[in-house]
Structure formats: C-alpha cells, structure tokens
C-alpha cells in the first residue's frame, strides 16, 4: 500500500484495515460453494487495474450475464468476500456472473466505484455474446449498481436488461444506519453534495431504468430507504419486483435459506433467456 494511502487509513474514524481483515477472515471460513464450469480472474481493460472474476455456468453457449458488485460500506469487500454468493448465483440461475472488485474508499472516493461498474458493463457489451446484461449488488454494491444503471439509460439501445438490488443503501444523506455504515458513506462521499449525488433515492428522474428487483430485509435499518426507492421506481413507470423478506436482517443473501433461494429465483426470472418480459437487445459500443 502506498504511504499516502496508509496515512489516510490511520486517520479514519473506523478501523478500515481491521474491517478489511475481518471480511477476508469471514470469507475464508465460509464453505466454498458450487463449482461452475469455469471460474477465471481478469483485469478489466480501461480501468486502473480493477480486478474481476468471471463465473460461467457453461462454456458451450452464451448465457445472460450479471455484473455483480459486492457490499461492504464502500470501504471493504472484494472478490473473496462474495465468491461463494457469486458461485451460488451462477449455479442456481444458469446466469454468468462477472464480479467486480471496484475501487474502495477512502483511497478512492465517489464516483470511482461507479466508473468501475460502468467500465465492467461496457467490457461485457463489447467482448461477450451475452444475450442480456444485468447489473446488481448487495448493500453498498446495490447503491453502486443503481448509480451505474442511471448513466447509460439514455443511449439509443440500452445496455442493461435488469437492475438487481439486495438490501441497498439508497440515501446517503439520511445518516440513520449504524455508525460504521454512516462512516463508510462519509469516507466514500465526503461532502454533503457528494452524498446527495451518490443517493439513488434522490435522483431527480428514475424513469427509463431497466426492470428492477429490489429486496429489503424486515429487520434492517436500510429497509425504509430501500422500500422508498422501490416506490419511486414504480411511480416512474419502471417494472419493479419488490419484496420485504420477513424475519431477515441486512445481508441475508450471504446466508443460506428460503429468502436467499427466492432472491436467486428472482435473478433467474429477470435474466432468463426468452422470459418475454425484459428487453434483450443492446447496442454494442463502437
């Protein structure tokens, strides 16, 4: 780590290095998960060395693809923290997954993570034959996914066929979540103006976004803002699957159970080929 970045971390109101170490330790303790037909690591072109991991349920034919963005308060997480979940998505849905280790705060502030997510979507559109592309994520990753989906919606043929969010952060101005989440939001978007710009719930116009799955947890401080975003999307004419999962807490998709099974079924439904309800055409950038 460069000396400047090390100095930034040493002055943080939360123990960022400690949180990152704990995240890796939890990842090592989890079962490995299903084994897709192919798992490969790569560096995304046109980014500052952003790593990604591609999970292919089959290598025989193109599959719909989900660009997945991990949670972690914008300051922790990566390919290892969500490796098991991405394996589960690929195995349960027959959808290819491209997990993106977007740049983290405080070393890289908003909109770096959004830029990385967009670069991943454009890489997929240019270099794969995926019949449909979705973008999604959990918690902070859901926030980044929503912000990335807002950017290309005005193109002649939208790149994205679906937006998927599990327990997303949607309003960084509210400061109602736990102190670590609030601190993470302030590290990622240090000014009030940046936090407002980085809040999908506060976007002036949500129309034109792709069909969306937005799931919240009953016992989650982020539930009200997630529910509010689902309502705004519906009001804007976006087809929305919204469900409050009963008896669950934030991050339920990281654990096995009926709620996770339902979430994976939602992914399969919105990105399955021939679903009939989603657009699969997209423009390949020149």
List the helices and strands and how they pair.
Elements: H1 3-10, H2 16-29, E1 38-43, E2 51-56, E3 65-69, H3 83-93, E4 96-101, H4 112-127, E5 133-138, H5 140-150, E6 162-166, H6 179-188, H7 192-197, E7 212-219, H8 223-235, E8 240-249, H9 258-271
Helix pairs in contact: 3-9, 4-5
How would you characterize the overall build of this protein?
This protein is α/β, with parallel strands linked by helices and 286 residues long. The protein has a single domain, classed as Alpha/Beta hydrolase fold, catalytic domain (Rossmann fold). The chain is built from nine helices and eight strands. Strands 1-2-4-3-5-6-7-8 form an eight-stranded mixed sheet, sandwiched between helices. The protein is globular.
β-strand amount = 15-25%
| Broad shape | globular
Largest sheet: 8 strands, mixed
Tally of discrete structural domains: 1
What would CATH call the homologous superfamily? Alpha/Beta hydrolase fold, catalytic domain
Summarize this, please?
This protein is 36% helix and 18% strand. The protein has 286 residues and is of the alpha/beta class. It has an eight-stranded mixed β-sheet with strand order 1-2-4-3-5-6-7-8, with helices on both faces.
Supply the key terms.
single chain; about 290 residues; alpha/beta; Rossmann fold; 8-stranded mixed beta sheet; disordered C terminus
